[in-house]
Write a structure and sequence with these properties.
The chain has about 350 residues and is of the alpha/beta class. It has a single domain, classed as P-loop containing nucleotide triphosphate hydrolases (Rossmann fold, 3-Layer(aba) Sandwich). It is built from 13 helices and 9 strands. It has a 9-stranded mixed β-sheet with strand order 1-9-8-3-7-4-6-5-2, sandwiched between helices. The longest helix is centred in the N-terminal third of the chain and has 26 residues.
């Protein structure tokens, strides 16, 4: 018997439910493969937990990638110095050191070199204050703290961190000296004192009084001993451990509360390992998302004296908006976005 054709209640082709389920399975599998590939290729440090787990060192905080600050600082700097007692003498009665070689106008510094002073309530400045607290707690009996700043590779921001950290210390009322100890590539001097004619080399090799070679950053009263190269220094590691260098440090210890030394990177030269016995602590800078974890771990593993002197590690140039992608619930870094009301940028 032949019946009339009936109107179908559902399409017979394509089979949407089956196709949808198949695409979900294939899409999920592809997503897992992509995620696994990205995880396999992710070889840099992204979180504080990674620092603690892989290096076994104290994690001191994250330094956000800096934006250009406002033209005027958030607080009036003379007022801040009054609050923190900049004009008062320390408990040891040391006199204020007045550089004779000249001064640096704050406005002429690149914004990244004066960020901690211009933005004292930023997350960047707060991390540097955490570094100071770590130094205070680690070295409670030292009247003068000599702290070196280094990294594994060039370009991770160690000189910028050294300048901002020293400026912050000085702006808080501590007599602070910043020394450019990177004699192979004195980027700090080029950035903050490009017109300097002499510096640490003349103090060590020619016996010139280091006070006559200092330049002062006006806004924070930070004293800076530059490194001016008139030619190649062939044996920089020997220079840093020479009797002349020790004499300069000894004189500086009698005058300052903090001495911050911008050191060469650990990877290419041995200078940091040579000078480490003269330091009280070392601040280690790692570029977020760039420097390979295995490189940092292996480098510190082969420089035991540097590791033993390590005050802690800071992650630099952090893109804070992407931080949640690498954190899970629990660690404080995951909640960084909720701390925003405690930090202020600009006037």
């Amino acid at each position: 018997m032949i019946l009339n054709a009936q109107m179908p209640f559902s399409p017979t082709h394509p089979q949407r439910t089956r196709v949808l389920l198949l695409m979900m399975v294939l899409g999920g599998g592809l997503g897992v493969c992509v995620a696994a590939l990205r995880e396999f290729r992710e070889r840099a440090f992204r979180t504080g937990e990674q620092i603690r787990a892989e290096l076994g060192l104290e994690f001191l905080g994250m330094l956000p990638a800096m934006k250009a600050p406002a033209s005027k600082p958030l607080f009036d700097l003379p007022s801040m110095r009054s609050i923190f007692g900049r004009k008062r003498r320390g408990k040891l009665g040391r006199r204020k050191v007045v550089p004779e070689a000249g001064s640096i106008e704050h406005e002429k510094l690149a914004p990244v070199m004066r960020y901690a002073v211009d933005e004292p309530l930023s997350a960047f400045a707060e991390t540097l204050r955490a570094v100071k607290i770590a130094a205070d707690l680690t070295l409670p009996d030292r009247s003068t703290r000599v702290i070196g700043v280094t990294s594994v590779l060039p370009g991770e921001g160690k000189s910028t961190i050294a300048m901002n950290f020293a400026s912050l210390l000085s702006n808080l009322g501590n007599r602070t000296l910043l020394i450019d100890g990177d004699l192979r590539n004195p980027g700090l001097t080029r950035a903050v004192a490009p017109e300097a004619k002499a510096g640490i080399i003349e103090a060590v090799l020619e016996g010139k009084p280091f006070k006559s070679l200092l330049v002062m950053e006006e806004a924070s009263s930070l004293s800076i001993l530059p490194a001016v190269l008139h030619g190649r220094v062939p044996h920089t590691s020997d220079f840093l451990v020479s009797a002349g260098m020790k004499a300069v440090l000894k004189q500086a210890i009698d005058e300052y509360t903090f001495i911050v030394i911008d050191l060469p990177p650990l990877g290419p030269v041995v200078d940091v390992r040579a000078v480490a016995p003269q330091l009280d602590a070392i601040l280690f800078v790692v570029e977020w998302g760039e420097t390979a974890r295995t490189l940092v771990r292996d480098t510190l593993g082969s420089h035991h004296i540097v590791r033993d002197k390590c005050l802690g590690v800071v992650l630099n140039k952090v893109t804070m908006s992407r931080l949640k992608l690498y954190e899970h619930y629990g660690p404080e870094d995951y909640y960084t976005g909720r701390y925003a009301k405690y930090y202020h940028h600009g006037a």
